[in-house]
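Exercise 7. Predict the structure of Redox protein from Marinobacter zhanjiangensis.
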Amino acid sequence: MKATIDWTGKASFRATSGSGHQVQMDGPPDHGGEDGGPRPMEMLLMGLGGCSSFDVMSILQKSRQDVTACHAELEAERADAVPAVFTKIHLHFVITGHNLKENMVKRAVSLSAEKYCSASIMLEQAGVEITHSHEILEG
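Solution. The predicted structure, encoded as tokens:
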């Protein structure tokens, strides 16, 4: 897996993935940025959410659950000192579908957290406390 980062002026950078996709990152105005994209630490948090959401949906689809939407809400706390690393992250999944089985949704979230989500497991090994919750909506 490869990626490149190119400075595009002030506190702005363009990230390009090995598969050719691009994301613009930018710093806040008080750090020379123009607020034209997410911060690098926000990208890390979004990457965790994407990784875990991908796993949850894959597991639910393989379990033949009729999912119509998957929404993940992430909330993170960072250390007060430099480096301001993540100390705690909570992922809350809102899974919408028809006749979803509670045990299948719970299993999908657990398997992602404990076995499949590389981002989550890597951050936990670095000392980040990661918790998960979920809710099911009919529809």
